[in-house]
Every structure is written in structure tokens, then in C-alpha cells.
Design goal:
about 500 residues, alpha/beta, Double Stranded RNA Binding Domain, TIM Barrel, 3 domains, 9-stranded mixed sheet
Length: about 500
């Protein structure tokens, strides 16, 4: 499908709406030239159109807005008056969304909301004095979202509110990235390397990472910030050896007053590299929360996504974690994995509930360009994914409640990822990062430090090099970049000498 846009300064939101319905969208280079009158621009004559199933043409004219769809079955179009308030882009998004709903017979449940943080919008509307009913009207009327999704966003925001209210001023969190895994899952697009092939990089990487952690914590102290949570993610942190974990977590323990932390999470995601010794190390060195992420409890689906372990291995790993003393465990599941079915996903969800972890996070499969599912063109229709996500009601029936929610580009059917929690076990880091409540200092390859202005809305990002080899080679440059942290907070700080 070819998308052609004219009369707008930006195509971003329109493109996102079109991709809800047609993932394999070709965006025409540049925009169609605006012209007098409100006729449809002849984008169908563009030479790329012959390569496509059809053409979507969107135009903001001087008096009217137009959205049109041409396919082999014919032409559909909708028009509207140009809005007096000048918000043509949003009005065209609504027009295009309604056109494509009619044409495809589908209705993405979040309507024209394209942002990744719908719950944050609820908080903003509350801050403006809006009632729950007014929030519902905004989401369903203006944004065309379904009532079920609006209720989900409201419940999630309500559970988050006490966490937000007790957040101390000038707080922050620390993320530590381990970009290694036992093997690469087919759906994964994260910065990660197979540890068997990249073993020579692990120790040099850890050595540099520990230096960056030390200097980042010194910066936090020098800036007078309160470190609330630490999160070690990946990749798979437990892919490194038990001694490697001792080195890493020992550095954190030396630098950070663990007793003052609200939460310390380590992803122990895969049972094929998470043994009893490593689980004991995590507990000994202060982790208060871990993730053991099955994604599915189906051996067939595990094999289809490239996992080298069985569902029984997951059960055994979970039992070991409980036996050694872990009392706050998250488990991830993914709806829409290859070879999975609605019935199979429901069985996985019921199995996770039966285990009783404190958090269960349900992700909707996201087709990222860097994942093997996309690279290998192994993309099915995934029509059952919405029915899988509907099964989340089993979590609420079991006493779990949604506590954070976000969406991603490329998520099947524009659905959401939702974290569910038992009462009192909200994953604080997840709320802080998703609702952009404070600065997240990020260390390691692929890290993106997100600086949040205390008491304000200004956000600035500082990026580390993406891959382990680049990170090691460019380490001095990474430290140099982090001088901007002091500038952001109005201090002249050098991360190599701070404190």
C-alpha cells in the first residue's frame, strides 16, 4: 500500500494511522504538491503505485480535508470541512481512521491515539480538573478509543496515583544494561549478542560498565538527587557467569546505599542460563525483585521463537527462585507468538496465575524491523492476537490489577502491553520510566539516559554506543557525553571527577 500526503508539514501521525491497517506501507518520498481546490491529488499515477496493493491519499486543502483509498476493489473517500481551530493533522487522522475502519472492517481499539503512553494522558486530564466521565468522553469522542480500553487506562492510572503522589522531589533511577543472551529469540530487536559467540567481549564489557556505574552514581550524589530504583536488564543479565554477576552487583552494592532503595530489579529472564547459584547471588547482593520470563508455557511455541529450553525448565527455575528466598517475582507472557493459539495463550496465562508471581506482564507481539520474524519474512496474519489479549480478564479475576501500560510501533493490531500486579507489589521502575516521572540514568551498551527536568516537562536524552564492541572502544567518548548531565541540571560537573 502506498501512502501519499499533501498539504501538511508533517506526515508522522498520518503514517502511523495508516500502518495500523497496512503494516507493509510504502511512504511516498516527499509530499504531493498542494494545489488549488480540493480535488484528490493524482497520487495513483506515481510510479511506485504499480508495486502496491493500492494507494492511500490524504490531503489538507484550503477549505476541505480529504482521505481516499484506492484498491483493486474500487475507490473510497471521505471529506470534511477544514477545522476552524487549524488542527488539520488531527482532523485528518480521524478522517483517515474512519475511512480505513470502513474499508477493512476492523477498528483498532485505541482509535487515533498514536502515543505510547495513553495512561499519561489520563493523568494530564486529571491535572486539568477533568472528571472520569470527561476523560471517557475525551478518549471515546475525540480520540475514538473503545470504552474497554478507556476503562483499562483509567484503572491503571488510578493504581499508579499513590505511587506518583509519594515520589520524592529530585528523584531518579538507574538502569544497567547487559546486552548478552544465551540465544536470540525470533521476535527480539533489542541490542543483544549471543554470549557463546561473544564470550571474549564479556569481561572487557563488565569492566567498563562497572566504571560507568561508579561514575554515574557519583554524578547522582553530586547533583543532590535521590536514587529510588535500580534495574538491571538486557539482553539477559543472568547470561553472564555467577562471578560476573558478583562483580557487577558488587559494584552496585559498593556505590549505592541499598537500604535506601525503593526497589532493585534484576531480569533473570531465561531458565537456560539462570541456575540456583545465580539466583542466590541475586539475593545475596540485594535484588529485591526479579523477572523470570517464560513468554509462553508451550514447548512448541518456545521452539518456534528459538528458545532452547522447555516449559518444565521455566517451572523448575521459578521453584528454585522461591526456594532460595525470592519474594517478588515478575513473569512476562507474549500474546501473538508464532505457532500460538488463543487456547494455548490462555493455558499459558492460567499456568502463570497458578504459580502466583507478584507481577504478570502481558506483552503484545511487536514486529520490529531488526527482529528475525521480520528479517526472515516469517510474518503470519496473527488475527487471533486481540482474542488472546481479551483473556487478560483472567488476571483481574485472580486478584491482579493493571499498574502500567504502554504501546509500541509495530504492535499487532495496535494493542498494548500491560503489567498486572498483586496489591502492594507495583513495579516502581516500570511506572517511573513509562510515565516519565523522573530522570533515568542509563549505563551500558545501547543505553539512553533520559533527563527529566525537576518539576518541569523538559526532557533531554544522552545515548551510549549501541553494541558491546562499540561501547568498549568508545568508552571515553561516552563519559565525555555525560558531562551534559551537569549542564542539564545547571552544574559544571565532570563525570570523571564528580564527588
Amino acid at each position: 500500500m502506498l501512502l501519499s500526503v499533501s498539504g501538511l508539514a508533517s506526515v508522522y501521525e498520518i503514517e502511523h494511522i495508516a500502518r495500523m491497517f497496512y503494516r507493509d506501507l510504502i511512504l511516498r518520498d516527499g509530499f504531493c504538491r498542494p494545489r488549488c481546490g480540493d480535488e484528490l491529488e493524482p497520487a495513483t499515477r506515481h510510479r511506485a503505485a504499480v508495486l502496491c496493493d493500492g494507494v492511500i491519499a490524504v490531503r489538507a486543502g484550503s477549505r476541505k480535508l480529504l482521505a481516499a483509498l484506492r484498491t483493486p476493489q474500487g475507490v473510497r473517500l471521505k471529506t470534511a470541512q477544514r477545522p476552524a481551530d487549524g488542527d488539520c493533522e488531527f482532523a485528518l487522522c480521524r478522517l483517515l481512521y474512519l475511512l480505513l475502519c470502513d474499508a477493512t472492517g476492523t477498528r483498532p481499539p485505541w482509535g487515533v491515539l498514536t502515543g505510547v503512553r495513553p495512561v499519561r494522558l489520563v493523568h494530564q486530564l486529571w491535572q486539568q480538573g477533568k472528571s472520569d466521565e470527561e476523560v471517557r468522553d475525551y478518549f471515546t469522542g475525540r480520540c475514538l478509543a473503545s470504552p474497554k480500553k478507556v476503562d483499562l487506562a483509567l484503572v491503571t492510572a488510578r493504581i499508579q496515583q499513590p505511587v506518583i503522589d509519594r515520589l520524592v522531589p529530585r528523584s531518579c533511577s538507574l538502569y544497567i544494561g547487559i546486552p548478552f543472551c544465551p540465544s536470540r529469540c525470533s521476535y527480539c530487536s533489542f541490542v543483544s549478542r549471543t554470549i557463546g559467540r561473544e564470550q571474549a567481549l564479556v569481561q572487557p564489557y563488565l569492566d567498563k560498565l562497572c566504571i560507568e556505574i561508579e561514575q554515574t552514581v557519583e554524578l547522582i550524589r553530586a547533583l543532590g538527587l535521590k536514587l529510588c530504583t535500580v534495574y538491571i536488564g538486557g539482553g539477559t543479565p543472568t547470561a553472564i557467569s555467577a562471578d560476573g554477576l558478583r562483580q557487577l552487583m558488587g559494584t552496585v552494592r559498593r556505590c549505592v546505599d541499598l537500604a535506601s532503595l525503593e526497589e532493585y530489579t534484576v531480569e533473570a529472564g531465561r531458565p537456560d542460563c539462570t541456575d540456583e547459584e545465580k539466583l542466590e547471588v541475586l539475593l545475596e547482593y540485594g535484588a529485591s525483585r526479579i523477572s523470570i520470563n517464560p513468554q509462553t508455557f508451550s514447548d512448541e511455541v518456545l521452539a518456534a521463537i528459538g528458545r532452547k529450553h522447555t516449559a518444565q525448565d521455566i517451572l523448575d527455575c521459578y521453584a528454585t527462585a522461591r526456594r532460595v528466598g525470592h519474594k517478588n517475582i515478575n513473569m512476562d507472557l507474549i500474546a501473538g507468538l508464532p505457532k500460538d493459539t488463543v487456547e494455548g495463550f490462555e493455558r499459558s496465562l492460567k499456568q502463570a496465575i497458578a504459580l502466583g508471581p507478584e507481577n504478570i506482564t502481558v506483552h503484545t507481539l511487536t514486529l520490529k524491523r531488526a527482529s528475525n520474524l521480520v528479517i526472515d519474512h516469517a510474518r503470519d496474519e496473527y488475527e487471533d492476537v486481540a482474542a488472546m489479549v481479551e483473556k487478560n480478564y483472567l488476571l483481574t479475576e485472580a486478584g491482579y490489577a493493571p499498574y502500567y501500560l504502554y504501546r509500541q510501533k509495530g504492535t499487532l493490531q495496535n494493542l498494548e502491553n500491560t503489567g498486572f500486579t498483586k496489591p502492594g507489589f507495583e513495579g516502581l521502575y516500570n511506572i517511573y520510566i513509562m510515565e516519565e516521572l523522573h530522570t533515568i540514568f542509563s549505563t551500558g551498551a545501547g543505553g539512553s539516559t533520559k533527563l527529566k527536568q525537576p518539576g518541569g516537562s523538559r526532557i533531554e536524552r544522552i545515548f551510549n554506543y549501541k553494541y558491546p564492541a562499540e561501547y568498549i572502544a568508545g568508552f571515553d567518548t561516552i563519559l565525555e557525553r555525560k558531562k551534559r548531565i551537569g549542564e542539564f541540571y545547571g552544574c559544571d560537573l565532570d563525570p570523571k571527577t564528580a564527588g
